[in-house]
Amino acid sequence: MAKDFTTREENYSQWYNELVIKAELADNSAVRGCMVIKPYGYAIWEKIQRVLDDMFKETGHQNAYFPLFIPKSFFSKEASHVEGFAKECAVVTHYRLKLSPDGKGVIVDPDAKLEEELIVRPTSETIIWDAYRTWIQSYRDLPILINQWANVVRWEMRTRLFLRTTEFLWQEGHTAHATEAEAVEETEKMIGVYAEFAEKWMAMPVLKGIKSPNERFAGAVETYCIEGLMQDGKALQAGTSHFLGQNFAKAFDVQFLSKENKLDYVWATSWGVSTRLMGALIMTHSDDHGLVLPPKLAPIQVVIIPIFRNEEQLTQISETANGIVKKLKALGISVKYDDRDTQKPGWKFNEYEFKGVPVRLAIGPRDLENGTVEVARRDTLEKAVYQITDIEHKISHLLESIQENLYQKAYDFREENTNCVDTWDEFVALLDGKGGFISAHWDGTTETEQRIKDETKATIRLIPINGKQEEGKCILTGKPSKQRVIFARSY
RNA sequence: CGGGGUAUAGCGCAGUCCGGUUAGCGCACCUGGUUUGGGACCAGGGGGUCGUAGGUUCGAAUCCUACUACCCCGACCA
Description:
This protein has 491 residues and is an alpha+beta fold.
């Protein structure tokens, strides 16, 4: 499966690419920048979806669906929004093909030109707010708490599997509120949901904060984000939640009558996470032996591999194995019993190890005699022999401790790679060395942020919420600063 | 989008410079047998319009042109 697998040390980005492809998560496709998500990768995404969807519903949201296409004119209604997305839009100009005159293939029918071009959505604020205009008349119609699961297209120059693809899958929440305070509360609530999901389910510690104006979403008043730290010391933005103020309501003329019978514009938020989370998941935990998945998101949590010399042995082992399968399933644990005789045990060990299955059980004749099973955990690669009595609860606990261990490991890594820095030289040295999050003072200007980016490729990942107030001097300009911000090189 | 590289069987590669029998190799695949507690072995077998489209030539994987995809570096990137 993966005999010649590049190590992280050798070439981190090659390691990542090989991992995604060889673990059968996704493949490149015939279409530039677009990937095929394979069943195993999609199964992980489905788990992510299910959990998040429950969390959204738990917090009062409903799912809906809006069109893939957006009339071009919609984009120009919100000035900074169009500016942010104009350079990466796919545009539909025609609606028909015809046989080419030379009879070889088809051409775009020039007579089928659209009156107004359609944009393939890079995000849905505009089409949704156009719809909200007709949904909202009164404060009684508010709040509107909608989420949609969709694909979007952003024509990026350079793509990487899961991390930045031309088409990607995501969810986008779009809410409408009667008051500013309520919209801000929603924005903060949802970044909290994302942080909780990242930490509890993905076992990925994240920093929570707000973006500098430079990094803010096009059209937002404030952008909240969660940022994870990958094993190569680069940050990855894993989710964003935007307070949109009244920008889109004004652009799409969405007004409502308040209790006081006053006409006012509606307050908005939008928030999203994408298949990029897959990239975050992969890069946070995986190692030189392949994928490592946190049990809570692993499509297969436990695999059972029989070790046998003949049919008779297999029959006996299967009896025991199927008993374990039943007990594990009763506890809600997803388990696969791989009794194929087309592959040898060693081959299977490597296969499931590479695919990140958290726990592997091996049962052979020796175990039948002793009433035991061999248990191997993917996170530490440790093996142990368990008595088969009450095996399902032992495994259940093991899965929990693997989940915790992965989080702790990632957390320790982040702590080791988060540094406070007060001088420019230290700042540059860290970035050129191990990287990581760097907490430093910044004078608050976009010009300074830009200069730092030009010189070091590092950007402000976030400004901590309720961060400690302290007097300091900007790392670059020496001008006064009241709070540290988090810098890093990022994906 | 700029610079560089790559494209030959499912995967990884050789052959291309210097055009000329039937395009090879490893892994994978199929059949039979022996095997099975960390990627088995032996024997036999199948699979390729050499990325796509043109061009040069008696003859093109090989030379020329265009296009497409992927990789690396840059620019870009809620």
